[in-house]
Amino acid sequence: MVQTPQFLDRPDGRRVAVHDLTPGAPDGAPVVLLGHVAPGAGNFDPDPEVTAANGVRLLSLDRPGYGGSDPVDGFATVDSAADDAAALLEAVLAPGTRAGAAGWSAGGRVVCALAARRPDLVSRVAVIGTPAPDDDVAWVPPEHRAALDALRGQPAAVAHAALAQAFDPLLGVLSGADRFGLAGVSDADAPVLAGDGVTDRLGAMFDSALAQGSVGMVTDLAGYMLRPCGFDPADVRVPVLLQYGDADAIGPEHGRWWASRLPDAHLETHAGLGHLLVVPTWHRTLAHLVG
Question: Is a pLDDT exceeding 70 seen at residue 123?
Fold first, then answer.
C-alpha cells in the first residue's frame, strides 16, 4: 500500500517529505528512523513483515531533491540532513523518549551525525554498508575522484551543474532494475532481489528518488563529497551496530574504519551479501535498535 508523505516545514522555507512506513503501528510503539541510500528516498521499508513483527513505528524522510523534498540553495550537507531528521524526531517523540536510527549506505552518515549532534533524541544506531571517507578507505573510482577534486572550492551551483551534466545522460538510458546499480546493487545481490517484493519496493523507491531528475542525487553527492561531514564519530556516544557484506564493494574495511573511530561500536560481517544486505539483516538491525 502506497502511503502519501506528510511534510515538515523547515526554517529556510523548504518542505521535507516524511514517510510513516507503519501507519498501523500502535500508540507508544518504539520509533525507528531510517536514513536512505543514495540515490534513494524515504518510501523504502527493507522488509515490511519484519518491521511489523517488531512492532515499531518506522519513519523516514526524503533528503533534499529526492521524492517530495525541496532542493536546497547551496550544499545539501550531512549535518543539515541530520538537522532535518532531528526536527522530525522532535515532532513525533513522546517526552523523555528517544528513537533508534538506522542508516543504509549514505544514510549511515546522516544517522551518525544525528546521534552526535542530538544525543537527546537517539538511543542506538545501526550503520549498514556505509562508506568511510574516500581519503581514508578509497572507494571512488579514480576518474570520478579527479572530477570531484576539480570541483572542490567551487560554488554549489557550479558543482551541481557539472555533476548534472555527468548524470543526466545516464538517467536517460537507464530504466527498470538497471537503475539499481546507481545505489551500489550488484550481481552479488541477485538472491536478495529475488525475494518476495524486493524488486518492486526498490523500483518504487527509485521512481520516487528520481521524480525530480538528477537533482537529489547531484546535491546529495556534492554535499557529502565536497563539504565537511559536520560531526566527529567520536561524539557518537550511543551503541552502534555496524553491518557489512563481504561481497559488497563497500565491504568490511569500511566497517573497520568506523569501528576504530566510534566509541561504542560492534562490527558484523555477513558472508555472501552485497549492498542490499539491508534487507536480509533487517531483523538484526531492529533487534539492536529496539531489543
Answer: yes
Would you give the distance in Å from CA 230 to the centre of its chain? 16
246 found inside a domain: yes
Within a domain: residue 78?
yes
Binning pLDDT at 50, 70 and 90, where does residue 5 land?
confident
CA distances from 81 to 64, 70, 117, 118, 289 (A): 8, 12, 12, 13, 21
Question: Would 267 be classed as within a structural domain?
Answer: yes
Sheet holding 240-245, edge to edge: 6-9, 15-20, 57-61, 31-35, 99-104, 122-128, 240-245, 265-270
Residue 1 lies in a domain: no
Helices (H), 93-141: 106-117
Domain CATH code at residue 130 = 3.40.50.1820
At 74-119, the pLDDT tens digits run 999 999 999 999 999 999 999 999 999 999 999 999 999 999 999 9
| Number of independent structural domains in the chain | 1
Residue pLDDT, tens place only, 277-288: 999 999 999 999
What is the C-alpha separation between 17 and 66, in angstroms, rounded? 9
Residues contacting 34, CB < 8 A, separation 6+: 21, 42, 44, 45, 46, 58, 59, 60, 101, 102, 103, 104, 107
The Cα–Cα gap between 191 and 273 comes to 9
Measure the CA–CA gap between 130 and 108, rounded to whole angstroms: 5
Q: Which domain holds residue 201?
A: 6-290
Under a CB-based contact definition with an 8 Å cutoff, are residues 42 and 93 in contact? no
Question: Within 10 Å of residue 190's Cβ, how many Cβ atoms?
Answer: 11
Stronger pLDDT, 1 or 9, i.e. the higher one: 9
